[in-house]
Design goal:
By secondary structure, this protein is an alpha/beta fold. 34% of the residues lie in helices and 14% in strands. α4 runs parallel beside α5 and α5 packs across α6. Keywords: ATP-binding, Cytoplasm, Helicase, Hydrolase, Nucleotide-binding, RNA-binding.
């Protein structure tokens, strides 16, 4: 019986539980081998501990490049080592566009899709420009959520592991005393949420007189009413001569107004020819509210899920759905903003490590969270706003890879579905009888297995 037939008939289904591509012909930036003597160009690369090469097909969101290599940016060898050991083989389009300008010290206003390498686009030049000999805070990265702060700090720590830099993360929900102790030690780069870092500044714990680089990631969220103009207050603690790097997928009027007020002739980058990721194929299933759990059970039994994120519109529904999924026999975590911070951190860490296949969450998890193993996103509750929808489905199909987004649509959602399609200029198709595994299963996405054009469109690969 097909997926659609099973849903419509109400039949029951039981639950069940890089190697980097480098150019050896390029000149050695430093000319000195890691052992202190002269080495042939490229010898240092052979000593790196790089992850296996990712052979999955990538979409033009990350492959439509100018052909630059990370070595073309004149980065220090120690930073290049960190980049390649992360498995980052070549810069993505947003990295090609922003890294050289950021290294020059110019302000940047950058717009690019979710999951196309924005974190690397600002963290690489920030880490390159920090002077480890100066014992002070030199760069500040502001993000809207605690989970994104933890993720970003881990990326910066991994990139800088061969540099003599100290990276620190500070967010609300953790002990202020511990953060004060760490700040008084040597710190060069801080990743923070706005409330906590302002608190530390006002207490004169974080001295920002040498902090000349400010990054605002997910800037549209940071400049929303949720943060009530906290960034204006934050900037007042920074030197007048500073560099601002602002990254966002959407540019509301608040972002433009902020840059006019605080930046000087920013270099503008806009890689948003369309809003949705090319690699995410979008479907909807029309169901009654009481059918949703049964429909979700059917999806679990039919799809080849590596990891999935399931979104609900309230914290109460998150917990109720997680309980239902567990009762069906599937492993499941849940996370929402009202949870204790230690519990949130543990769930986030364990899900990233692949300890659980399914995660039920609120919109807490929509901003910037990058878990490459997620190949299925399910909107158990359909969002009301197109911006929320865009960020939710962006948890799948990260960095040009392929994934699917499935929306459970009730009668009351029908007009919202149409509105979001129109606002985003995208198409959300009825779920087919069978979903082509090449659209979301990694083993079907090896290079050379399929023509890339088949995947770039996404919707044309359904049997």
């Amino acid at each position: 019986m097909s997926l659609v037939d099973m849903i419509n008939s109400g039949s029951k289904v039981s639950g069940s539980p890089n190697t980097a591509s480098l150019l050896d012909k390029k000149p050695d930036m430093m000319g000195i081998g890691m052992g202190g003597g002269q080495q042939q160009t490229g010898d240092w690369k052979k000593q790196l501990k790089m992850p296996p090469k990712d052979r999955r097909v990538k979409t033009s969101d990350v492959t439509d490049r100018e052909g630059k290599e990370f070595e073309d940016f004149c980065l220090s060898r120690e930073l290049l080592m960190g980049i390649f050991e992360m498995g980052w083989e070549k810069p993505s389009p947003i990295q090609e566009a922003s890294i050289p300008m950021a290294l020059s010290g110019r302000d940047i206003l950058a717009r690019a899709k979710n999951g196309t390498g924005k974190t690397g686009a600002y963290s690489i030049p920030i880490l390159e420009r920090v002077d480890p000999k100066i014992d002070s805070i030199q760069a500040l990265i502001i993000v809207p959520t605690r989970e994104l702060a933890l993720q970003t700090s881990q990326i910066c720590t991994d990139l800088s592991k061969h540099l003599k830099l100290k990276v620190m993360v500070t967010t609300g929900g953790t002990g202020l005393k511990d953060d004060i102790i760490r700040v008084y030690q040597k710190v060069h780069v801080i990743i923070a949420t706005p409330g906590r870092i302002i608190d530390l500044m006002e207490k004169n714990v974080c001295k920002m007189d040498q902090c000349k680089m400010l990054v605002l990631d997910e800037a549209d969220k940071l400049l929303s009413q949720d943060f009530n103009k906290m960034l204006d207050k934050l900037i007042s603690f920074l030197p007048l001569k500073r560099q601002i790097l602002l990254f966002s997928a959407t540019f509301p009027v608040t972002v433009e107004d902020f840059m006019k007020k605080h930046s000087i002739d920013p270099y503008k980058i806009n890689l948003m020819d369309e809003l949705t990721l090319k690699g995410v194929t979008q479907y909807y299933a029309f169901v009654q509210e009481r059918q949703k759990v049964h429909c979700l059970n059917t999806l679990f039994s039919k799809l080849e899920i590596n990891q999935s994120i399931i979104f609900c519109n309230s914290t109460q529904r998150v917990e109720l759905l997680a309980k239902k999924i567990t009762e069906l026999g599937y492993a499941c975590y849940y996370i929402h903003a009202r949870m204790n911070q230690a519990d949130r951190n543990r769930v986030f860490h364990d899900f990233r490590k692949g300890h659980c296949r399914n995660l039920v969450c609120s919109d807490l998890f929509t901003r910037g969270i990058d878990i490459q193993a997620v190949n299925v996103v399910i909107n158990f509750d359909f969002p009301k706003m197109s911006e929320t929808y865009l960020h939710r489905i962006g948890r799948s199909g990260r960095f040009g890879h392929l994934g699917i987004a499935i929306n459970l649509i009730t009668y009351d959602d029908r007009f919202t579905l149409q509105k979001i399609e129109n606002e985003l200029g995208t198409e959300i198709k009825p779920i087919p009888k069978e979903i082509d595994k090449a659209l979301y299963v990694a083993s079907y996405q090896q290079e050379g297995a399929h023509e890339e054009e088949e995947h770039n469109g996404g919707q044309n690969g359904v049997k």
